[in-house]
Design a protein that fits this description.
Blueprint: H1 2-27, H2 32-55, H3 57-61, H4 67-146, H5 152-163, H6 171-179, H7 184-206, H8 209-220, H9 227-252, H10 259-265, H11 282-288, H12 290-314, E1 318-323, E2 327-332
Antiparallel strand pairs: 1-2
Amino acid sequence: MEKIKTIIFYLGILLSGVMSFLGLMYVNKGELVLSAVFAAIIVLIQYFVILKFRDNKDIVSKNKISAITVVLFTLYLVAIIPSTIFTLHSLNVQLFHKSEVIKNSNAHVEKIDFLTKQYENKYNAYLDLIATNLKKDLDVYKVARSSKNNNKTKIELLEEVLTSSPYLLKSEQLQNFVNGNVSSTSIVKKVVDNRKEAFEKNAKESLDEKLVEKHKKNINNWNLISVSSSISDLSNLHKSALEKYNSSLIKNILLPKNIAEAREFSSIDENPSEISNLLTNPIKLIKEHIVFGIVIGLLFNFLLIIPVIKMSQGGYKSRLKTYPGGRIITRRK
């Protein structure tokens, strides 16, 4: 019997530690060390209290109210309440909300992909506009330079536009263009390619697509250790990418002749919401599955204290012994 009670006791402690750890991982968004430390503290308190209950079985069995009884029950509540909450949370997520979390997370990955598409559409539309405007400005510049009655002020203004952002043409290029050594098409292509390269570089620096795929895989495969951190990281990646994309657009989109037109391309209007993360709200899920929580909570607590119950009920058989003089003394095993 003692071996069975010991096995039950250690099984309960083991389950308490594992389930509390998983529940804490969900709540703490995958903070491994923090969750492990909290789970270890809970288990150690439970282990200490149960052992003390066993060592003080006489006090417990006689319902004596003493300082040690109050302390033990207080410590037990301190450990068992969070342990039960995190255990139930782990089970609720695993049994009732796993598919929902995966679905929401995949939807969030799609939002991140759409964000990247928005960024690409913005800068491609801007590059098309640059190409159109540059072609016009070059044609006007060539005509102005070739005219016998050329307007010096107009030429200087055009040169100022063509040599500044976003075109950044050199005087040599303009002279070669006027002389017919290079076409406007080749100049436009070179300018657009340079601008596009800057945008694409910013896109790669703004969002690590391999990391997004890694987190998606962790969630879809339900990697117990990393699923929470992957969900949290997806939200962070979304926010970070939005900020960097907008920063890139503001920095690189310049239309010197039309500020209002530039503003049309200079930002992505999106408010990245958190993934509908059921993992961080244990109380909400416990309320949703209250009957399941009561049953499992009682069973879980019974599993932990069953060794103490057995000891208090079955370990006190009386033994009578007669001593000289007719005295009868009752001894307990």
